[in-house]
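In the previous lecture we treated proteins in isolation. Real proteins rarely work alone, and many bind small molecules. This record shows how such a complex is specified: first the sequence, then the SMILES for pyridoxal-5'-phosphate.
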Amino acid sequence: MLIRIDRESVIPVYEQIKEHIRGLIEAGQLKPGARLPSSRNLADTLGVNRTTVCTAYEELEADGYLASHVGQGTYVTAPDQLVGKTSERRVAQNFTPKFSRRSDFLSTFAQRSETLTGSSRADRILFSGLTPEEDLFPVETFRTVLNSVMRERGRELLQYGNPQGYLPLREYISSRLVRYSISAPAEQIAIVTGSQQGIDLIMRTLTDPHDRVIIESPSYGELLPVLAQYEVDVIPIPVGSRGMDLDILEQKLNEQPARLIYSMPNFHNPTGATMELADRKRLVDIVAQHKIPLVEDDYEKDLRFEGTPIVPVKALDTTGTIIYMGTFSKGLFPGVRVAWVAASREIIDRIVLAKRYSDFHTNLLMQAAITEFCVQGHYDAHLRRLHKIYQLRRRRLLDALKREFPDSVSWTKPDGGYALWVTMPPQVDAEDLLLLAKEHGIFFTPGRKFYMEKDCGKSSFRLCYSRTDAEQIDEGIAILGSLIKKLLKQTIS
Ligand SMILES: Cc1ncc(COP(=O)(O)O)c(C=O)c1O
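The predicted 3D structure, ligand included, written as tokens:
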């Protein structure tokens, strides 16, 4: 099958392959029952990664154009299954909108990320997705709290609210931050619809196109499309076992000023690295000296399962340069979309202004329910339960890795958070491993998703253990270990 791939196009390669095959099917050039080449053969012919072809096939299968059966390969489906699809498609094709450059950037990133991360319900062992396990959600307690706030304050909570956030929640967060040695009164706190929105509002408020924004490399995968949308120049700083390399940070800042720094000093996503106190002090001094705001994304602050907590960078801030973010997504539920930003009054006022013209405010009912849930002590009780469970799972995972993975593979051992970072020898590609793992129903996130730079992170991957129980950990790691050994053998022979 000859498909012309345009590697310069903003349309991802898998999408180009998918569209070409769909065109052939709709034009009748590929008849029902026709067998497609195997993903490996087509990938070799086109000179693309096998994951790319697999993604195109999977999407065509999901759209009803293709079917696959073990031993029979992938073939074109019967015409009656296609009728609905083609007519739907004809309608959709009447109008081709012209999207903004920002939307194009976003689309490219999102599709690339989809090929790397998309998992399905059929996957039995999910080491992907930094998501808390829903089976552990205190649903009944939350329901009781939600009912009571509705009963007592329903009218007020269903009305428009303050863009800065529900005052009792800001007061609760302010008191909670005191525990971490952060002094931030309620007026220096804004409630946001997830820290993802916090990042977006901060970027919108503090950067202009072509400003230099410093991030860690690797970094939080969902940050990268936001940066691309705002068209900033990203300066990646390597992350080691102690977090961002501060020597390189200083060197970059001495070369040229930057507008913003984004960092995850605690349980860095994806490596799990945590910055030590001395480095945090040095980081505060650096940003104060260069007068650059630093976003400290403390998304897993409440999830330390081992060791001694280290004060956030924000607690060491004396000049108002640190913008601190926290969220209820990891320790409680991501679906409620409640997070917060704590910063100087000046910065908070501008963030709130951006929020007001974006979504007015975060869902008031959820803010009130979360407040009540926390004030009644349920959040801390839930965290205590999570800690016990994850202490055991973390140990189980580390033991399994030691037992099953070859000596040439290394991994981080974070004291908390839901993930660790695995580094294989450079000749093993994590995306090849993922293809094999998927056949066993196992999913994880290949390293490439976390890099802005091309060709980085190929032999690394992130393993999340938030949604895997002890048995799945043992089984999943044993299988991954044997697959890595198999790939290693293939690269030697
Ligand atoms: C580092 C980091 N920041 C922010 C977020 C987004 O969190 P939220 O659900 O609060 O938007 C995530 C989610 O995984 C994350 O890993």
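Summary for your notes: Residues 61 and 67 are 5 Å apart (CA to CA). The mean pLDDT is 92.
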